[in-house]
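User: Could you write out the 3D structure of this protein bound to zinc ion? I've included everything you need below.
Assistant: Certainly. Input first, then the structure.
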Amino acid sequence: MHTNLLGITATAALVVCLLLGGEVSLYDFRVSITTRAAGLVIGLTPTFLCWMDTRNLFYGACYGNLMVCSTALPTEVHKARIVAHEARHLEHFEAFGLWASFMQYLLPLEPSFVDWADPAVELRQMWRRPIGWPYRWSLLEFEMEAGR
Ligand SMILES: [Zn+2]
């Protein structure tokens, strides 16, 4: 079992959210199976949603397996839109690992148009990991060597 730089820094960010009084909950739990040269890799990634007062610095952010959303959002509709947006970014980290932030310059990871009342509008624009695309990152990975 091992983790990696993104796992360590994302966990540190989660701890900072807790220390700053964020309201943290488990969002979902992802299990992946990827074939690599050495054999099978089973990935386990709990994802977390943290609501906190971001002082209007940002409405939402995503890093690794952590989504941070602002309690300053005025309505439940606004909050649902931000969560849907950041949840799509969770997929980007699964697909690219630490390169996810850089990949926004090559792929449409961010929407060009946002409809605050309808998250589906931007989700249609945001890149989605195709079926069969290998997982590049999980919080915890278990490697099972081939031939054993
Ligand atoms: Zn975004």
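Residues 5-145 form one domain.
User: Perfect, thank you.
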